[in-house]
Amino acid sequence: MKKVAVLTSGGDAPGLNACIRAIVRTAYYYEISVIGIKRGYRGLIEKDYCELDPRRVGGIINKGGTILHSSREPRFKHFEFRKKAFETLKELQVDALLVIGGNGSISAANIFAKEFPINVIGIPKTIDNDLYGTDYTIGFDTAVNNAVDAVDKIRDTTISHERIFVVEVMGRDSGFIALDVGIATGADITLIPEYPFPIHIVIQKLIDSYKKGKTFSIIILAEGVAKAQELASVLEQKLKDYAIGGIRYSVLGHIQRGGSPTAFDRNIASRFGAFAVERFLHGEKNFMVAYEKGEIKTKPLEIPFGKVKKPDLEVFELTKKLTI
User: Fold this and answer.
1) Could you tell me if 252 and 150 are in contact, meaning their C-beta atoms sit under 8 angstroms apart?
2) CA distances from 292 to 106, 135, 231, 288, 311 (A)
3) 3-class DSSP assignment, residue 289
4) Nearest CA to 78 among 121, 36, 41?
5) Domains (ranges, CATH) in the chain?
6) Which residues of the chain are under the pLDDT cut of 70?
7) Does 128 qualify as catalytic in the annotation?
8) Cα distance between residue 22 and residue 26, in whole Å
9) Which of 13, 158, 188, 207 has the most CB atoms at less than 10 Å from its CB?
């Protein structure tokens, strides 16, 4: 009987449980047993694991987070600990390791696969959606919807007090979340690291809007550009001569990561998990699941290594066209 192991590594993302569930149930459909590695790569090093079966993953498709827990494991950067991880898999007689992760996790998986005779399969997840080689990563849609819901609420206060509000969203050094949130909420300005927007242009745009009679503004700020508090402070100083109802800011933070995954994330996570198991059965090795132009496919595991994924410039330009 074939056996696979699955782990979730790095930051959590809505849809992880749906993916784990799909892996386990697809595997058992094909009479493959599944080992769940706890706390990501740490579990491989410390031999922390459990057996997973269809009943164990019942009722988790709508749950945020991950039942296997997750961690960022710096020890896995060192060969001696990767060797320990391989010895754990060898002891368990595992035929393939499925890693559900983002940039750091998939890069580590690629190194691991090159060093040891183990079939490693990467499944893309990160709310940042910045993993090169795939159009979509598990968790992104839910994170965007969480942020949109928060901004819609903030807008009510912004309009009531005729303020300018800076809303900082997550994304590390990537602007995918900010860009989608900016369009979906009708933000007046969207700032992302990939396409810099000089501060004097931001200030002039706000002044022009004020002169045209616009009494409030929403600025969506990707965390990779600046801190919301810092930007709000600069704007307050530069706009002090205008009768604006004040500058406020909000950092949405980790609420974007949590909560029940959207229908899209549940579906794509389920499809990714099932696809990974089936391609393993077909004999494919050391690959990453990818979503490209509406199709799920496999790509070499090293595809994302050292590469940077950027938002579409045309989409960024759209944010400016829609805020005339």
Assistant:
1) yes
2) 18, 5, 36, 12, 14
3) strand
4) 41
5) 3-139+261-300 (3.40.50.450), 143-257 (3.40.50.460)
6) 324
7) yes
8) 6
9) 13
